[in-house]
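Chapter review: from sequence to fold.
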Amino acid sequence: MKRFFIFLTVTFLFWITDLFAVESRIGVTFETYESRYSHYTKENWFFKTSNCAINNESIRINLNDKHQTDSFGVRRGTALRNSKNFFPFSNCFTGFVESRNGSPFVSGQIDQKFFRASFGHRFRPLENFYFLRDNNFYTALPGIDQPIHKAGFLGFKWKNWSIGTYYSEQEAKHKPGIYFISPWKFFEFAYSPEMKKHYASVNFHSDRFGFTGPKIVSRIQTFGQKKEIDGTFYSSVSSEKLEFKLTGYRGKSEDLFALDPDRNELKGKAQLARLGIVSNSYFSLEWIRAWNRPLEFDLKRSNFFPNNILQLLESEKEFRKDLDPSSKRWEIIAGKAPIFYDLFWGGILLSLRNYSNETIGRGIYYGLVRKNFTIEAGQEWRMNGDCITEGKWSFRLNEFWNLEGAFLFQKEDNKTDSLFEARTARDETSFIFTDRSSSFRLRLLSPYIAFTVSHSRRKENKNDGIWINLQIQFPF
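The token string follows.
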């Protein structure tokens, strides 16, 4: 409680110093995890104030509205003229005061026509999710920058191009890093010579370039050192009747597999590729493949073994790698087709899945797709005796309010891991592989509140784990 009052005092002093603020926000994040064997809580209080441009979401709506009769160029010109009302100062400042688990942090950012400078634990020019992130905290609230480690940036701007340098307490402490940003943030790149680590992003939206026809969205975010590159890939081509979707992931195995900790698949590097084709008449085809590679100990960097033993161990490691280049592979080919279909009542769907261990799964599902909500639930029976019950839903009131969830129940003696939909970004979902007997996720997204609760039960020891994250902000 004492730390909270200190935070309020600093926030008040920070607030009264900015008498010309155009926008301010105050908020808090609470997070907790509870199970039989572990428990933790986190809290993050924050206050943001700025006399910079208000992030007017209506501008983006006008640009992307499919029902607009004007051309994209006309709509873009109108939006830009309207946006001038939200740029009262050519030079502007944004400040951020926060407390992460009782530790106070102050961040600031100065924006000018030809340069940009920032310091602290919040502001970064790149939108790459992995760039200097603080793995213990994150935000799902619009208008709030992602928490990062202590860093400072100085960049120069020219006609929506930007290039600059940065300091990072963890990655660029002795040698400054460099970054580059293209217009519309179509391409972003940062590199740390000290760590020899790079970050790269591609963010393409067809409507930004005035393309007609199917809507195309593609996002790539990567980071890594030398050939060890991790990240995510998302690409979607959609029309009124059909959608093609391709997603990919490479990173830690524990982010892709929710398995028993005693299983080796939990440790190492994992990759996922997913290709899906979905029509509004409930026909769908999907191909999913996942790989897992165990972490390898770098023998050459070890001083524990003599050289002759090192050579023997290296040859043994290469021999094992040739025998089994990957610890395990998951592959699923799936399809769904309606046996009954009605625009108002929905449809009854038959499902067929071919798993990598030569197991066939047959299921029956109910699905309903409307403009603002989607529901799907059903059961699958597999030839090896496995059985699962699963479902998902999404209620989207508008572009900013969305309530979504998913559940999965499976027999405790199931032999094949099942798929469960998890959230990867604000507008994207992906699968994880799990052997848990039950999994549940519920999430509410809005401009003012983001609430997530997830629950799972391990099949061996009946250990229940529940994770809750609540984020609230009040703009004024």
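Two observations follow directly from the output. The mean pLDDT is 81. The helical segments are 2-16, 57-64, 72-83, 307-323.
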